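Exercise 7. Predict the structure of Epoxyqueuosine reductase from Methylomonas rosea.
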Amino acid sequence: MNSPPHQTEDFTALVQRIRQWGEELGFQQIGISDTNLNDAERHLHHWLDQGFNGEMQYMAAHGLKRSRPALLQEGTRSIISARMDYLPELPAASQRLLDDPAAAFVSRYALGRDYHKLLRNRLQKLADKISAEIGPFGYRAFVDSAPVLEKAIAEKAGLGWIGKHSNLINRRAGSWFFLGEIYTDLALPSDQPANNHCGQCRACLDICPTQAIVGPYQVDARRCVSYLTIELHGSIPVEFRPLLGNRIYGCDDCQLVCPWNRFAKLSAESDFKPRHRLDQATLLELFNWTEAEFLQKTEGSAIRRIGHLRWLRNIAVALGNGQARPETISALADRSSHDSEMVREHIQWALQTLDRLNV
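Solution. The predicted structure, encoded as C-alpha cells:
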C-alpha cells in the first residue's frame, strides 16, 4: 500500500459519499471499522483450541493474519465493510420444503449465482469511485477470498451484531445478507459498533438439527449441517445422518427461526434468484443428475465446489431420511455400484434405513 498521503480532515465527508456510492452499487449498508480485532482474535483462538473447526484447517493456517489486518495487507488503517441482502424468497417457502421429505433443501444463499464474483465486482467499482474522488490510494477488496474475520469487522463497523448462532444480525434487516470488505490505507473515521440484541432468546440453539450451537456464540462446526454437507470431504458420521433430514447443501434453520428476520427484505438482485428449479426440485430429480448435468447446472454456483460425489453423498442421506417409496429404492439401487466407495457407503446406509421402515 504505497499511496500518496491524503488530507484526513475531508474523510468524514468522504465516508458519506462512500455510503451513497455503496447504495447506488446495490449494497444495503456501508460501515467503517478500525483494525483492532483483539476480542475477535481471542474468541477465534478459543474456538480453534477446542477443535471446533474440524477439517477446516484454513481457519488456523494463516497465523495472526486473520485477526490483524495490517499483517494480511500492509498499511491497512481502516476497513470498509459492505452488506448486500440475498434472500430470494419468503421464509414460509423454505419451511414448506423442510416439511416435505421428498423435496431437496438447498441453503437460500446458494440458490442463485455465486455471490463472490458479484460482490467483488461491486467492491471494485466502489474503490474506483473513491480513487476518482481522491486519487490513488492503497486498498484490497475481499469476499471470502482471504483470511478475514468478516463478521467481527462488520460488527465493529456497525452493520450488526454477531448472534448466538455466530451469524451477523442487523436490527432492521435480519441476517440474510452477504458481506464484503475493502482494506484501505486511509484513516477513515470509524462507525460505532452495533449493540447486541439477542437478549435471553435461544431459539437458534434449540432449533439446530444437530445441536451444533453448543453454547451461546459457540458453534461446533463438526456437528453443523453446513459443515457436514459442504466442508466435510469424507463420510458423514452415521450419528448425524438421520438429523440432516432433506438438507443437501447447507442449513438455514437458525436463520429461519431468528425473530429479527421478520425485518428481512427480499433481494432485488436478479443473480440471487433461484436457478434450475433448485428452490422446488425433488431429491430424486437431483440425485439423477449425471456428473455432466451437475457441472452444467451448477456453473457459476457456489454448489459446484462440493463436486458431484459429495452431491450424491448428501442426497443419498436425504433419500434415506425420507419415505420408502419404490422409486426411491430403485434410484438408490441403480447407483449402488457407483465407482466411489464414499457414495456406495451412503447409498447402502440409505437402503438399509429404508428397509427398516418397511419391516
